[in-house]
Design goal:
Helices cover 54% and strands 14% of the residues. The protein is built from 7 helices and 7 strands; from the N terminus they run ααααααβββββββα. Helix 2 runs antiparallel to helix 3.
Amino acid sequence: MRFVIPVLLVVLAGSVAAQPPPGPDAHAAAMARSLFHEGVELADAHQWSEAADRFRRAQAMRPSPIIAFNLSVAVLEAGIEHESLVEAVEMLEWVRRHAETPEAMAADATARLELNRPRLASVRLSIEGSLDGVTLSIDDRPVPHGAVGAWIPVNPSEHTVVAMRGEERFSAAVPLLEEGTEYEVALTIPAFVPEVVEPEVVVDPAEDARRALEAQRRHNLLMADQRQQEQTSRRQRRRRRAIGITVALLVAGAAATTAVVLTRDDPHPNGTLQTVDWR
């Protein structure tokens, strides 16, 4: 694989030197140039992952076909295609189409695209349910609704498809994909059930105090009624007890009288009456 970073450094330096006098973006341009130089040094030392990091940060600050090309080369040389193959292919495509890309670099980018684009895996989303208010993503990479049903290039690795609707999360796992493979994901989004929010009740302080007094009054009346019922119950129990005692005494007295009458001596032991002749 042909590597062109040392040559591109000179091209970048020349393009920066030809820029207009420093303006509001001068600081960002200087930082991007510094990061690019660090990336070249790391690439010369074959520290490809670190070089890709510097080129990626430089490209974010000052997009340039030269930086993007070297970023794609560093990613591919680092062997981190399972993480960044999509990024490398997108950078190469951007370089190939950019109007400021040197002809030789555009040809090199085209050749690298022909080698690496077929290595991408692809995922096609099938959504059942409404997408209203739903955001889609694959591994935190936003997926527009228009991409549903189309093949989406992804890195040859495992993935997670996520649909978010407010705080609701619906997801589907994509198994480990080999290079050049395709996988279809079906995701069901249930119908939205709106949360029922009870209206806030605003209570006037005076009304609240009146209700509290009314509740206390009812409580006092209830307690008084309970005390009255207890007193009435006690009086009835005392009355029944007194009546019971009186009846018991009367019964006992009657029994005693009967016993006296039955045990008195008969005045006529022979069973005949004594008469007196008054003549």
